[in-house]
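BUG: 3D viewer hangs when loading the predicted structure for this chain

Environment: internal workstation, default settings.
Expected: structure renders.
Actual: progress bar stalls at 90%.

Input used:
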Amino acid sequence: MRTVFCCMLLLSVGIVNFSFGQDNMKAFPPAGDGMTRFVLELAKQEDESLFKVELIVGKTVELDEVNRYFFAGTLKEETIEGWGFPKYILKELGPMAGTLIGVDPNSPKVKRFITLGGEPFLVRYNSRLPLVVYVPEGTEVRYRVWRAEPNAKAMEKR
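Structure tokens produced before the viewer hung:
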């Protein structure tokens, strides 16, 4: 009986892995109304523990060149029920805020990519799964790959 159970378990795991490999977006639902889905397929790395991916969410806006701006909002990680895979969601791009440095009213406006305020949003590098981000329509998602040195350095005792 135990042998039959083990064989069934291994077979079912193989079927799930096989079906996911054929269409790696099957687990990720389409974007809902007013939302957009962005997908990033990462390249396989020899040691993926040395890498992180920074998700940068924002919007391109025409503004002055002098002031610093940011959008309110929080990017959150959620787990897809039944699959256990992560997806990242920004439910609402909040109002834009910025510094109040005086600017010549005749100076030309420039297009700038304005991001969410706060700390960088770093996620684990995993080339086996797509990185899927859901954001409100009109919002952009960019990314940056960070790499650590393979050898850690020792700190000095004092």
